[in-house]
Amino acid sequence: xxxxxxxxxxxxxxxxxxxxxxxxxxxxxxxxxxxxxxxxxxxxxxxxxxxxxxxxxxxxxxxxxxxxxxxxxxxxxxxxxxxxxxxxxxxxxxxxxxxxxxxxxxxxxxxxxxxxxxxxxxxxxxxxxxxxxxxxxxxxxxxxxxxxxxxxxxx
Length: 155
Prior knowledge:
Layout: H1 2-12, H2 16-41, E1 45-48, E2 54-59, E3 83-91, E4 97-105, H3 110-121, E5 128-132, E6 135-142, E7 147-154
Antiparallel strand pairs: 1-2, 2-3, 3-4, 4-7, 5-6, 6-7
């Protein structure tokens, strides 16, 4: 009983700020930072498999991720209205890119974005499909997940 009474005495005194509020603020700050980094950070992960191939991937639930620097030379066209949610880049043993999968979200009309890609790829049929810097590129939209899929595979 005496310990419980001393705890309540501590809460009502001026010393409670140092004892209770500072650790509480620290814990709350750490919790908020971990939420922020998990949902918007999208840190790239590099996984090397037994056969020597490598996978580079990143995902963000709320924000947008940036494509890795290894893709800068390809100049992959990403529409201004698209926010990249996740990507997968597969590399062979010699660190050459074999395939790229990019998934994006947008509030803009899907048909407008698909038409933009058809124009970029000089597509002749109904699909946004064509060649881009030595890769077969295919852009599609999924109504169920509301995601755009940009797929590039080495020819």
